[in-house]
What we know:
8% strand, Single alpha-helices involved in coiled-coils or other helix-helix interfaces, alpha+beta, elongated, 12 helices, Heat Shock Protein 90, single chain
Amino acid sequence: MTELHILTLFTHGLIFAALSLTVVFLKYRSHRILLARRLSWLGTFALCEASVAWNDLLAPLLPQGTLLPPLLRVAVLAGGYAYLLAFGLQTFFPKDVEPLKLRHLLLGVQLGWSIPYLLTLLFTLQLHSNMAPVMEVLVRYLLAAPGGVLTGVGIRRQSYQTLNKDWRAHIRPYLRLIEAAAGAFGLLQLVLVPSVNFLPAYYLNENLLPFSPHLLWATVGGVWLWGVIRSLTIVQTEIEQWIENVEHIQALTVDRERIGRELHDGVIQAIYAAGLMLEGVQHQIVTDPQRAQGQINRILKNLNQTIQDIRRYIFDLHSDMPDNELEPGIRRLLRDFKINTLLETELLVTGEPAGRFNNEYRRHLFQIIRESLANTARHAAAKRVSISLIYQPETIELIIRDDGVGMQSLHLEKGYGLRNIRERARLLDSKLKLDSAPNQGMTLYLTVPYP
């Protein structure tokens, strides 16, 4: 075994071990991304691939000449490639398939694909004195090749179905790396196989290369690893940036409302002062008309300034909230939330409104929804959020549900947002109820009378 072969074999194992560890670290952080929901399958495949590479590296150093028996080595490869094929297949199934049904579907497809070849092999056992290389070739042909190609095609297909075009534009180069690496991994399995008396491996095998095939495997794995790291990291960074922006907007909203209350007090004082001045002027109109006229002009100037201040502050206080009617405004909030967090969202509307909603009423409702969605994005580790808007004859009901870890599993810190939600619910003279349990998500119920 040459030094170059040892180095490429070690790098082969190292790259796929790094891919497996990367998947483990990124899986939880990227749970909201549909493409990453079953990353653990890809991690299992990468771990098996690294194990076999390092087995081949260490085997010559051992007295028995092997770390894994030949058939066990093939079984490890088969297990890893089966997970790769499962990962590729699941990208073509509907996203709402139940986990148990999905496992049955994947197992059925794999068995249906592999059984005819395995039966053919059983009938020709007497033709082969050493079955391990032949089994390895079949594993690469039947599991690794279609698994790699399906993974590449499926990721491309699913990215167009589940990612907003703006998100795709951010990570398109890195998604292309993942797709190309997965497809190349599958196609190379048809060529870089052990040389056995088994077509087409008799002609197309790893002996055709003037260098170690592990150099190619390490290159493909490195491209795959870089694409996964960059894609998921960029998406997660964008989501965290959106959450920071929401927190900033919420802080601004609190400050603006505080300023609004202070302005309200100032306006009352200004108007009260104008009233007192008018009371004094009415006694001067007869005795000193010229002085009274000057006083009236000053009062009018102060009142005009007060009106301008009121208009400016009202505009500033409402500038960051939707100005739509209630239902379109909620749809807008959900649309922005989905684009920025990649969580699945749904709005269900029941009934027809029995009254109209003024700006202040809508503003409080929108802010309650925004606070709730922001809390879900920050703390809940959820995959789905739904909002139900139910119009009753005298009230409306707002129900916000997520499928996250539940409120009791969280640390309710100062900035969590529940205090703001309760305060706004009080201002709407509404009934607020929070229903949550560990790993059961959280549901917010709000019953609001018509204004």
